[in-house]
Amino acid sequence: MNVRHLFVFALIVLVASTRLMTFLPNFSPLTAISLFGGAYFVKKWQAILIPILCVWTSDLLVNNILYKEYFQSFTFFYQGFYWQYLCYAIIALVSIFALKKVTTLRVLTMGLFGSFLFFLVSNFGVWISSNMYPKSLEGLIQCYIAGIPFIKGTLLGDLGFSALLFGTFALAEKQFPVLNQKTIY
Question: Which of 16, 56, 106, 137 has its CA at a distance of 20 to 30 angstroms from the CA of residue 49?
Answer without folding.
Answer: 106
